[in-house]
Amino acid sequence: MLSMLAPAGTRSLDGLSAVVTGGSRGLGLLIAEQLVARGCAVTIAARDGDELDRAREYLTRDRAGAAVRTARCDVADRGQMTALMQDAALAQGGLDVVVANAGIIQVAPLDALGPRDFASASDTIFMGAVHTALEALPRLRRSPAGGRLALIGSVGGLVAAPHLLPYSCAKFAVAGLADGLHAELAGSSVSVTAVHPGLMRTGSHVAAEFGGRQQQEFGWFSAAAGSPLLSMDARRAASRIVTAVERRRTRLVLTPAAKAADLGRGVAPVLTTRLTALMARALPSAPFDDRVPTMAPGREVEAAAEADLPPVLRRLRSWGSALNDRASARLNQRGGARRGPQRGLA
């Protein structure tokens, strides 16, 4: 455990100041943990104050002298992001590392989605990254250590993922933003790292939003996200992300499946698109009736999903998501009252 939290010979972050958006749970919480373990003073930002309190307790438990601040902030609000960066820089003596991680996940077929779902994903994932970058850069440029900016994308931003269309569109935009910022800042003191993880066991299935046949959508997503064959241990992913930021790597793609999808898109784009179309046909279709499409968080769908699935599929889902279920409790995914789409997922 200790070696995973603080790899030998990678202490160049010691004493630096960091901000992590979406840092109250899931991958963001583990990235903050890595930064704290490597000697950073860290501000974690999210919308939910109770989640932030629990996250701070998690990060400071058994870590004497750990410098962790919390800030309630909606990344979709430019004014709140301005205040976040100003306050963090003032409290921590400047800014050296900023990780734009905030996001939401909406799982539903196209026929169960509306314009609001796309706007919500874009506001949080893409515009949240834009606000983070624009507000952080003037301060990162003043860092004596040379600023480091990381944008957390996704394999869904490299290859469009079926039943995750708003998420994928927003993550594609984040990928473009990261590439463009890297080009614009070439030769400056600020490095930009684009991170594209595949599936990780962060427990995000209980906070993700599900539409269409909600129980069935929850079933396949939770099983895939927790399967040891498809997903990656989230703490290991966070360690690799922070090491990439520390070493100023331009791009990091995590998990073999994500690397294969990225390669396939570059080498055989038509075949890759056809394969994703086949995947989409295997997923649940939307119910065709007059009901207004609604989304519900996984923590509300979970019990109904267990009861709704046939016994064989229930056992498969239970096997596939067992590790992810444990991660959801450990990584602060299950607490807090629902107040609209949950920002701060991996």
From TrEMBL:
GO terms for molecular function: oxidoreductase activity. It comes from Actinacidiphila bryophytorum. This is Short-subunit dehydrogenase. InterPro entries: KR_dom, NAD(P)-bd_dom_sf, Sc_DH/Rdtase_CS, SDR_fam. Keywords: Oxidoreductase. It comes from the Bacteria. Residues 16-198 form the Ketoreductase domain. One of its GO terms (cellular component) is membrane. Gene3D superfamilies: NAD(P)-binding Rossmann-like Domain (3.40.50.720). Belongs to the short-chain dehydrogenases/reductases (SDR) family. It holds the Pfam family adh_short. The keyword Oxidoreductase applies. Signal peptide: none annotated. The lineage of its organism: Bacteria, Bacillati, Actinomycetota, Actinomycetes, Kitasatosporales.
